[in-house]
């Protein structure tokens, strides 16, 4: 594995398989009463988050703590960037304290790649703008593997605000590498520009018709409508979006009972996903959250205890 985890493209199929195997062991730790391994004792991990986060930030923090690393959280609002300090000065300052890993979320696409060129610590991209979110893709694929077994030939349908989704971009790379057949569905206004050439190159299908695609799905991944990244009207009304592209109660009825329903969170209930679907027995949404801790333990372990792995 490389020194940083900036993009899903940094990982080979072997790397992903290794990360999943370690995550499965870490998952067992989660079920113990005493959830502590000594693997990263004496190592320091900083979570530097310039965007809001519930799951990603806390699961990186828990993952670091359960591996006995010292973990510290810094948020954009509470840091000196709010006093005008540049990103470069902020990360060089943090790096000078002797940090081993920097987990970073930033609103600018490419921010993590840039930071990795400035500092020696391992940089983990926890979401950069609309670009990538590799640990989310890993935990999604890990969750699906646990539900479905091998993803080889399985049909994964990704639905929603593709234009603004870093989760979708990282998932395409991860799922296709693991042999899944992927179809992405969105209204024309939320389908990324240039998707035709991209889908041909990366081997995934696109559709505007959710009802046509859904009956052939082995797994469904609903994505959040990211209103905070939208500058204009991407769809006429929330109701119209839900009717065309939401996982509604009626659409839930067309899914097989064993088809996992995923959502990276946070959910807009009633918009991209109905409460019945989010809370259905086949929903994998909370499994994704718990897998998130195991995957992030695995990633931290392989990046920081690399020589020993
Ligand atoms: C995603 C993110 O922040 O990119 N959420 C997450 O990490 N769990 C998706 C989203 O915000 O919709």
Can you offer a commentary on this structure?
The chain has 309 residues and is of the alpha/beta class. The chain folds into 2 domains: 8-133 and 289-308, Aspartate/ornithine carbamoyltransferase (Rossmann fold, 3-Layer(aba) Sandwich), CATH 3.40.50.1370; 134-285, 3-Layer(aba) Sandwich (Rossmann fold). It contains 12 helices and 9 strands. It has helices at residues 13-30, 55-66, 87-96, 111-118, 134-148, 166-177, 195-202, 210-213, 238-245, 249-254, 275-278, 285-304, and strands at 44-49, 70-75, 101-106, 122-128, 155-159, 181-185, 205-207, 219-222, 261-262. The chain has a 5-stranded parallel β-sheet, with helices on one face. α1 (13-30) crosses α12. The protein starts with 12 loop residues before the first helix and ends in a 5-residue tail after the last helix. N-carbamoyl-L-aspartate binds next to α2 and α6.
Protein topology:
Elements (H helix, E strand, L loop, with lengths): L12 H18 L13 E6 L5 H12 L3 E6 L11 H10 L4 E6 L4 H8 L3 E7 L5 H15 L6 E5 L6 H12 L3 E5 L9 H8 L2 E3 L2 H4 L5 E4 L15 H8 L3 H6 L6 E2 L12 H4 L6 H20 L5
Parallel strand pairs: 1-2, 1-3, 3-4, 5-6, 5-8, 6-7, 8-9
Helix pairs in contact: 1-12, 2-12, 5-6, 5-12
The chain binds N-carbamoyl-L-aspartate.
N-carbamoyl-L-aspartate binds next to helix 2 and helix 6.
């Amino acid at each position: 594995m490389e020194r940083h985890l900036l993009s899903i493209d940094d990982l080979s199929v072997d790397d992903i398989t290794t990360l999943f195997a370690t995550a499965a062991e870490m998952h067992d730790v989660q079920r113990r009463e005493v959830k502590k391994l000594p693997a990263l004792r004496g190592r320091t991990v900083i979570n530097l988050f310039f965007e809001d986060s519930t799951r990603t930030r806390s699961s990186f923090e828990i993952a670091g703590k359960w591996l006995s690393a010292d973990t510290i959280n810094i948020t954009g609002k509470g840091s000196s960037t709010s006093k005008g300090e540049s990103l470069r000065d902020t990360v060089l300052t943090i790096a000078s304290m002797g940090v081993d890993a920097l987990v970073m979320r930033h609103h600018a696409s490419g921010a993590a790649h840039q930071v990795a060129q400035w500092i020696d610590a391992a940089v983990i991209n926890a979401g950069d703008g609309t670009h990538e979110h590799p640990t989310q893709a890993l935990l999604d694929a890990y969750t699906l593997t646990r539900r479905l077994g091998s993803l080889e030939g399985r049909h994964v349908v990704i639905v929603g605000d593709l234009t603004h989704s870093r989760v979708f971009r990282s998932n395409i790379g991860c799922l296709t590498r693991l042999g899944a057949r992927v179809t992405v569905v969105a209204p024309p206004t939320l389908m990324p520009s240039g998707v035709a050439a991209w889908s041909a190159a990366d081997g995934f299908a696109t559709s505007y018709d959710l009802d046509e695609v859904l009956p052939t799905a082995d797994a469904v991944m609903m994505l959040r409508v990211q209103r905070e990244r939208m500058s204009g009207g991407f769809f006429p009304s929330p109701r119209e979006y839900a009717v065309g592209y939401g996982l509604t109660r009626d659409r839930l009825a067309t899914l097989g009972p064993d088809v996992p329903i995923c959502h990276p969170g946070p959910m807009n209930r009633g918009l991209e996903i109905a409460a019945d679907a989010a809370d259905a027995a086949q929903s994998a949404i909370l499994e994704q959250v718990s897998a998130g801790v195991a995957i992030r333990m695995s990633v931290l372990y392989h990046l920081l205890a690399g020589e020993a792995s």
